[in-house]
Amino acid sequence: MIPTTTIDTLALSFASLSSLGATLTEAEWKTPTDLPGWSVQDNLSHLVGIERRMQGLPGTTHQAGPRDYIRNPIGEANEHEVDSRRHLHGSEVLREWDELAALRLATLRAGDEAYFAQETMTPTGPGTLADFLHIRVLDCWVHEQDMRRAVGRPGHLSGPVAEHTIDRLIRTVPIVVGKRAGTPEGGAVVIDLSDGVERHLVCEVQGGRAAMVAAPTNPPLCRIGLSTEAFLVLATGRRGADQVTAAVEGDADLAAKVLGQFNMMI
To answer: Does the pLDDT of residue 247 top 60, yes or no?
Structure first.
């Protein structure tokens, strides 16, 4: 199957990144973000490196020096691409991105079913190229939001790209509520998202496993209200629970455990 919806959503994400980049000054390109060691420009350089690889283009031969924030081989490979572009002006990285984004979309729109069924390793394990594209939407939007927060340019917190990403992150809520926070058997936690992507999430533990349900069997142990941005920064490990605003009702200790264990990214 050709993932037409995913491609259309990725195109929206690419365009939003380009539009944001076109508004940035050189000082803003060099502004630090929530990602240790990475500037606004570095976030886009990272996306360039990944999309070049997806397009089958050669990666950099540059070797970045040691960084204390690199935790795994993926992070090391990402750093080589990012560091290879640090000497450039932000506008130069944006130009490379714009040209590459157009090339990637042309390639994707020309792909047949066999192309998207190709087996590949994704950030979540073995999958197909179509699976990888689904994750690319998330990665692009998350980094766009990293860039926006750094320069105080909020936006694009609603719509297809935001909904796609938030819904992927929601998949991990049962692990947070059940395994990590230790919600007791029969207990439920309600999480309400607002200010962008609106979601009413009910996660309940039954038979020793947490799962999303339409409604709790019993009154929920606690309710947590988060803005879309607060949910995003918690779920992606950009910030801790002490750095966001959450509205809590019910068992405050359980809510604190949930919020404190929210990071879903590797």
So the answer is: yes
- Give 17-36 pLDDT, tens digit per residue: 999 999 999 999 999 999 99
C-alpha–C-alpha distance, residues 188 and 221, integer Å: 6
* CA separation for the pair 93, 28 (Å, rounded): 13
pTM of the full predicted structure? 0.95
All domains of the chain in start order, with CATH: 4-153 (1.20.120.450), 167-260 (3.30.1050.10)
Strands (E), the chain: 119-122, 125-128, 188-194, 199-206, 209-212, 222-227, 247-250
Number of other CB atoms surrounding residue 143 within 10 Å: 23
Q: How far apart are CA 192 and CA 85, in angstroms?
A: 40
Q: Report how far residue 75's alpha carbon sits from residue 69's, in angstroms, rounded to the nearest whole number.
A: 9
- CA 196 from centroid of its chain's CA atoms: 15
